[in-house]
Amino acid sequence: MARKVGPQGARTAAVIRDAGLTLIARHGYEAMSLRQLAAEVGLRPASLYNHFETKQDLLFDLVRDHLVDLLGRTDAALEAAGPRPLERLLAFVANHVLYHLDKKREVTIANLELRSLEPRNLDAAMALRRSYEDRLIAVLDAGAAAGAFAVGETRVVAYATLAMLTGACTWYRPGGRLSEADMVRLHADLVLGGLGVATTDAARTGGARPPGPDKPKLVARN
Amino acid sequence: MARKVGPQGARTAAVIRDAGLTLIARHGYEAMSLRQLAAEVGLRPASLYNHFETKQDLLFDLVRDHLVDLLGRTDAALEAAGPRPLERLLAFVANHVLYHLDKKREVTIANLELRSLEPRNLDAAMALRRSYEDRLIAVLDAGAAAGAFAVGETRVVAYATLAMLTGACTWYRPGGRLSEADMVRLHADLVLGGLGVATTDAARTGGARPPGPDKPKLVARN
Amino acid sequence: MARKVGPQGARTAAVIRDAGLTLIARHGYEAMSLRQLAAEVGLRPASLYNHFETKQDLLFDLVRDHLVDLLGRTDAALEAAGPRPLERLLAFVANHVLYHLDKKREVTIANLELRSLEPRNLDAAMALRRSYEDRLIAVLDAGAAAGAFAVGETRVVAYATLAMLTGACTWYRPGGRLSEADMVRLHADLVLGGLGVATTDAARTGGARPPGPDKPKLVARN
Amino acid sequence: MARKVGPQGARTAAVIRDAGLTLIARHGYEAMSLRQLAAEVGLRPASLYNHFETKQDLLFDLVRDHLVDLLGRTDAALEAAGPRPLERLLAFVANHVLYHLDKKREVTIANLELRSLEPRNLDAAMALRRSYEDRLIAVLDAGAAAGAFAVGETRVVAYATLAMLTGACTWYRPGGRLSEADMVRLHADLVLGGLGVATTDAARTGGARPPGPDKPKLVARN
DNA sequence: CATGAATGAGAATTCATTCAT
DNA sequence: AATGAATGAATTCTCATTCAT
């Protein structure tokens, strides 16, 4: 009854996007051919055009959806973190790290393939990315104003922090010695250290943890 | 080592490499065509083959030369820094930041185009890169052993640090408000903070800095 | 004759044919895609196939219907013109010119797209076209036999005349300075002149016309 | 020594143009594929691009060269014809007919494929064509002013005349009963008749013919 | 050392058409 | 009747590369 791939076109479109995500992340946008993509999803190249209009459109879709998703989750995390700067920062860091470890492909594409976007699409993507950066900058500024962080150049700190946190997804291998929670913790320590905040247990993953007796840093000393 | 070049062939080869650096950094290896490159240097595509054997060879040359250069400078900087962990770390940071700000194109290519290298070439490049990472890891380990740094997971800290420092070259614009020395200082502070080393606040440019005796800056020689 | 059309299917089919007429006349048969045609009539490409079997069929339909229509009108005009050669010729000319000015699209297609017809269809179209040419040849021959016209090579004169008359529809713009009646008159004069028939000067619009008694115009009924 | 087609690239380019002329005239621009063209000249499709930049460029080249050629020959013919309107007209007619019979392919393309030209190229082609039409219009106007021709609407007469004369090349078959000279004569008679000029031998092909005894019209009375 | 010409492979995309729903 | 999805065949054109000159 069904032809080949399954029930519906929407399903096929999702499969295509997923395969595109993988292939573009692995080989790069320019290096991925639509033949490859079609083969990956069991279609003929021409059939892809029932699901997107252009290779470029596919790329932009992936980038934009990722950025919108990231932004949405970040706002939710910040909302849940409440008003205190430290907890907001920790929420940001935790969200960023977890998202980046989970969505390695999306992140890779959004970071490496901006140069493959047409000007129009690049503008849109950059605007979203700037929005995201602004979230962190706002957190840092609020913390600095409240005297919670020692932030020199906010912008520099923000960019450096984002670069550091994002880098994690290029080398982290799930299932290894380090859990995702470890990654969050380790990176939170580095960030807080850079901001002159003595890192203690109080500042941890979910941020929702009630304060308690000061425990020694979790990170091993070696 | 020398190709089939005569008197001014070496000059032409250098011009080609420079143009290649620019074009690959801007558009990506896959997206740069040899037609473009030839046009850029005022040759016909066929003539390029008097100066390299393959597009892939050109890429690898650029990547390898960059990595070798970086490694050499790093070793020189470490040597000059003497035996003390803190100074060695600061030397590493300063060298890394300055090199990355100066060699934006090389760095971009080496970071983004590894996936365009053929397996053989990739292996060689990765080996060099790992050598470089090992320099930092060694510095951190030494510092941890000496009790100078609070390093949790050395490897994580090293990768995170490198990601942070490298990120600078993606957004830094020379001639702007921040000098290269500023960049070194700001990043050194972040790194040291992350390692639990109290940094002088002299390094904080704009922040709400707690008053205190002006101590000499830790970093920013060169 | 009827296709697989229901109640309003006939209407849709007519709309499609009309849009096809416009698009083929404007862009040419090869250059018009069924996507374009479908879009023009607010359908999806697949739906067109409820109204014709093949793009080629659509073309042939348009060509054949046009030729049949032209032939029918010509015969009616000749019938109405009576037996006298001059009046028959004028009737032919008037009919041809008026038809060609009114049915620019059909005429364009029938003249330019014969080469796009499959052999079978081409044969049919050529047969119809030859029938049409034969009407004029017969008129000329009759006139020559009656001594009314000075026809050298009948066939040459016929083809030349048809080319001249048909050409009108490539440059005539309705609503301009010249009415359709003007066009008929002007062309009739040229044709008659070429046949050695003295034409009334009433038909000369702007020229340096030698004075003479105003005679009724020969042409331009209808 | 030579690869395949012959001595030089210029030769190959000429061969390509000639084959293009034939194929486009026969099948139409849209219907001719570059594969076909390449096969015709014994090249691979990719090799064609060593000789032109674009299929469209090839088309425009053919059209423009033809129009420039036609214009040049016309001016030469008019120059040779001297100042007298009748002889100028006859020279124009003779030149037009002979050129059109000889360059059937070029003429066909220039007439049918204007719609395949991109706007920019279309403009250029139209300007040339208008120049050509203007040559005839000028001849007619001069003749009308001198009282030599009875021209009603100059423009209409010019267009009708051109259409008639051009039409010849769509049906004329060289080697048939009619020579090219016959074609010239027959069409000259039609044109002159349309202009109210009694056609006699005096008005013939090259115009250079010395006057002699008045012979009856050449065209048979059928 | 540079180049014109050629080429095999492959790129993205379009096309007319089919068919189950 | 209309359509979404699929497809084989074909389109123009680009690419890295070669080689005789």
Overview of this protein structure:
Four copies of one chain form a homotetramer. The model of chain A is unreliable at 1-6 and 201-222 (pLDDT under 50). The N and C termini of chain A lie far apart (62 Å). Chain A has helices spanning 9-27, 34-41, 45-48, 55-81, 85-102, 104-112, 119-145, 154-171, 180-194. The first copy, chain A, has nine helices and no strands. Chains in contact: A-B, C-D. The structure holds a DNA duplex (21 and 21 nucleotides).
Main sheet: strands, sense, barrel of chain A:
none
Cα end-to-end separation of chain A: 62 Å
Question: What is the N-to-C succession of helices and strands of chain A?
Answer: HHHHHHHHH
Q: Biggest chain pair contact, residues each? A: A-B, 48 and 50 residues
Output the number of helix runs of chain A.
Answer: 9
Q: What shape does the CA trace of chain A take?
A: elongated
Structural class of chain A: mainly alpha
Radius of gyration of chain A: 20 Å
Tell me the fraction of residues in β-strands of chain A, as a range: under 5%
Question: What are the defining features of this structure?
Answer:
disordered C terminus; disordered N terminus; homotetramer; DNA-binding; 222 residues; mainly alpha; elongated; 0% strand
Give a short summary of the structure.
Chain A is mainly α and 222 residues long. Chain A has helices at residues 9-27, 34-41, 45-48, 55-81, 85-102, 104-112, 119-145, 154-171, 180-194. The relative contact order of chain A is 0.11.
What's the SSE blueprint?
The structure is a homotetramer of 222-residue chains.
Chain A: H1 9-27, H2 34-41, H3 45-48, H4 55-81, H5 85-102, H6 104-112, H7 119-145, H8 154-171, H9 180-194
The first copy, chain A, binds a DNA duplex (21 and 21 nucleotides) through residues 1, 3-4, 8-9, 12, 33-35, 43-47, 49-51, 54-55.
